[in-house]
């Protein structure tokens, strides 16, 4: 039986909320690709920052529902309308997550620290002028400032803070976000990475990255790391072509 | 908003020290059944601030929880306790109401079950 994910016809919508698009599909594909590992991972708390339409968190719940019982799902969005739309999408699929309207995970940072076993984030990654970042409504779903990194760079330390020892983190990025640099920043916090999905569309080149804590102290030398990143990127592309 | 989330949230206004737990003002409470999962409850028990849960449950009209957190033996053997814990943590929903910061009295609204914890510019 194929895994169930959220059905587009059941995803609620609103003109101020980002609809499921190539990036959302690529992220859900990454979760599907990693499904067996996720089941084995046996998470207790899963969370999405920036849940938008609710398509991704609903898909994650459906993916794990029958295999991993007793998981607590949390979803946040800075747009109150998106939070409501996510609730409607969850309800339409008959699944449950706790949705909170907050900036990134601001109100959860004290008490949820070190508790999240799976974090998924499809951040506002589109390079835009800085003043567009943090605007209300649908712009908050895409406006990413310089290199599309302004919000991503705020999210990374929060994710590091919230993840449990065994926590996994899936992140949507564009090549224009300089993903090698993101991986290097995460490496400095003690995380290893893997490219789970790569997808080129007409407009953008998407990478879905997965991070996990890795005690192995690899070289933090920037040059070495950057060449490692390009090697793993090319070998990933090589495998894709086969 | 369920109490499992209430137990994880604090007031994030800049400079506020006494930021937890948020006091609940309930206008509408609903209940939804959730599958009983003892393993999950045992995992969560360690993370829960007991008094905040008890007070939260009371403000939602549920008074069965003991004042003091039971010891871990009760978690293994006492199913009636686990059932109460389960109900308070996962089945009660604050559908409409407010969350009040214990230090500043700032109110955060809860509409259609979603707490709005966004801050004003001068609070960040």
Automatic annotation (TrEMBL), chain A:
PROSITE patterns: N6_MTASE. GO terms for biological process: methylation. CDD domains: AdoMet_MTases (cd02440). The keyword Transferase applies. This is Methyltransferase small domain-containing protein. Coiled coil: none annotated. Belongs to the eukaryotic/archaeal PrmC-related family. It comes from Eutrema salsugineum (Saltwater cress). It is found in: Nucleus. InterPro entries: DNA_methylase_N6_adenine_CS, Euk-Arch_PrmC-MTase, PrmC-related, SAM-dependent_MTases_sf, Small_mtfrase_dom. Residues 43-133 form the Methyltransferase small domain. GO terms for cellular component: eRF1 methyltransferase complex; nucleus. Keywords: Methyltransferase, Nucleus, S-adenosyl-L-methionine, Transferase. One of its GO terms (molecular function) is nucleic acid binding.
Automatic annotation (TrEMBL), chain B:
Pfam families: Trm112p (PF03966). Coiled coil: none annotated. GO terms for molecular function: protein heterodimerization activity. It comes from the Eukaryota. InterPro entries: Trm112 (IPR039127), Trm112-like (IPR005651). SUPFAM superfamilies: Trm112p-like (SSF158997). GO terms for biological process: rRNA (guanine-N7)-methylation; tRNA methylation. Interacts with TRM9. Belongs to the TRM112 family. This is Trm112p-like protein. It comes from Eutrema salsugineum.
């Amino acid at each position: 039986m194929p895994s169930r994910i959220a059905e587009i016809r059941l995803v609620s919508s609103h003109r101020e909320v980002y609809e499921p698009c190539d990036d959302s599909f690529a992220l859900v594909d990454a979760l599907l690709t990693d499904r067996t590992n996720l089941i084995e991972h046996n998470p207790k708390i899963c969370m999405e920052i920036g849940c938008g339409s609710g398509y991704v968190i609903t898909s994650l719940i459906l993916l794990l529902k029958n295999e991993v019982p007793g998981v607590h799902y949390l979803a946040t969005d800075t747009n109150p309308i998106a939070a409501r739309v996510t609730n409607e999408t969850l309800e339409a699929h008959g699944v449950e997550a706790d949705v909170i309207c907050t900036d990134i995970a601001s109100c959860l940072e004290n008490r949820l620290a070190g508790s999240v076993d799976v974090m998924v984030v499809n951040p506002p990654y589109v390079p835009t002028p800085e003043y567009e970042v943090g605007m209300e409504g649908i712009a908050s779903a895409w406006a990413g400032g310089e290199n599309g990194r302004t919000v991503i760079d705020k999210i990374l330390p929060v994710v590091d803070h919230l993840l449990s020892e065994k926590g996994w983190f899936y992140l949507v990025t564009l090549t224009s976000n300089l993903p090698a640099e993101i991986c290097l920043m995460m490496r400095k916090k003690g995380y290893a990475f893997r490219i789970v999905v790569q997808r080129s569309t007409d407009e953008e080149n998407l990478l879905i990255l997965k991070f996990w804590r890795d005690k192995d102290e690899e070289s933090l030398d920037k040059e070495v790391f950057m060449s490692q990143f390009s090697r793993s990127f090319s070998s990933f592309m090589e495998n894709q072509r086969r | 908003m369920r109490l499992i989330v209430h137990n994880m949230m604090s007031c994030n206004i800049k400079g506020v020290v006494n930021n937890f737990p948020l006091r609940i003002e309930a206008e509408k409470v609903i209940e939804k059944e959730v599958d009983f999962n003892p393993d999950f409850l045992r995992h969560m028990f360690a993370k829960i601030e007991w008094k905040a849960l008890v007070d939260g449950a009371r403000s939602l009209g549920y008074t069965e929880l003991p004042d003091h957190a039971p010891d871990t033996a009760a978690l293994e053997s006492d199913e009636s306790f686990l059932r109460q814990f389960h109900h308070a943590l996962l089945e009660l929903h604050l559908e409409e109401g407010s969350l009040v910061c214990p230090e500043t009295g700032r109110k955060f609204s809860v509409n259609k079950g979603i707490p709005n914890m966004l801050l004003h510019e001068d609070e960040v």
